[in-house]
Amino acid sequence: MTALVLQARLDSSRLPGKALLPLGVRPLIFRVMEAFGSFPVEKKILACPEDSESSFAPLAEEAGFSLLAGPKEDVLARYCLVIRHSGADRIVRATGDNPFVFIDAALALKREAEDLNADYACYTELPRGAGVECVASEALLRAEREAKEPDEREHVCPYLYKHRELFRLYRPIAPFAWLGPELSVTVDTQSDYERAIDLYGCLVSLPLEERNLGENIIRALRRDLAETDL
């Protein structure tokens, strides 16, 4: 059984409360969940710290996500808590500051990771903030037992790709249509957020199921960047 696990928090140091900032009249975190609305997994879970639970609960319910609260800084432990509660044997990991995640790329990666029985899978050379990671639950549980460094706990997956001898890793360059390593669609700062508002405005006229297709996002982003440079 596969679970989509979306991590989010409210106290970002560079852009506090960004998950609840409006993006087309709805909160940014809702747009991320909305993007995964038809994603084919058995469970969808928003994993947040305890101090964000009350703020996220109504949005998660509206979007069809379960909500599970866990440790704030030890995000690896938060994911493993989800694994134990859900019984998932595979996780698709997404983050709440990426409203323009490429859903078609995420689906392709999920299928490839399952076919290869990979412990860890991600595409490289995507725009920053466009991708997901697909991870075997047993690999994350092992990382929880063995990982000691703070970055290995906060960022969830570094222990896996630091230890190639222990895990089956799959990290191919993304298909050509989704390439854009010089681009960014994540929301970390105020300027990122302002760019996200512009980009969402370019995409909102598309049907919902087309807004988070990689080629549409790249096309809209390049057009927006070109107009900004004029």
Provide a descriptive summary of the structure in words.
With 230 residues, the protein is of the alpha/beta class. It has a single domain (2-229), classed as Spore Coat Polysaccharide Biosynthesis Protein SpsA, Chain A (Alpha-Beta Complex). It is 43% helix and 16% strand. It has ten helices and nine strands. It has helices at residues 28-35, 53-63, 75-86, 103-116, 137-146, 150-154, 158-162, 190-203, 208-211, 214-229; strands at residues 2-7, 22-23, 26-27, 43-49, 66-70, 90-95, 120-121, 133-136, 169-170. The strands form two sheets. A seven-stranded mixed sheet has the order 5-4-1-6-8-7-9, with helices on both faces. A two-stranded antiparallel sheet has the order 2-3. A hairpin with a 2-residue loop joins strand 2 (22-23) and strand 3. Helix 3 (75-86) packs across helix 5 (137-146). The mean pLDDT is 95.
Task: Name its key features.
single chain, 230 residues, 10 helices, alpha/beta, two-stranded antiparallel ribbon, Spore Coat Polysaccharide Biosynthesis Protein SpsA, Chain A, 9 strands
Strand content: 15-25%
Q: Reading side by side through the largest sheet, how are the strands ordered?
A: 5-4-1-6-8-7-9
Please report the number of helical segments: 10
The CATH topology: Spore Coat Polysaccharide Biosynthesis Protein SpsA, Chain A
Q: What is the CA-atom radius of gyration, in angstroms?
A: 17 Å
User: How many structural domains does the protein architecture include?
Assistant: 1
Could you state the CATH homologous superfamily?
Spore Coat Polysaccharide Biosynthesis Protein SpsA, Chain A
